[in-house]
Amino acid sequence: MNIPFIEEKLNEIIKELEIEVMEVLMDESLDKKQTNLRMKPLTSTKKILTNALDSIKMVDRLGREELEK
Question: Taking the CA of residue 9 as centre, how many other CA atoms within 13 Å lie in the half-sphere pointing to its CB?
Answer without folding.
Answer: 6
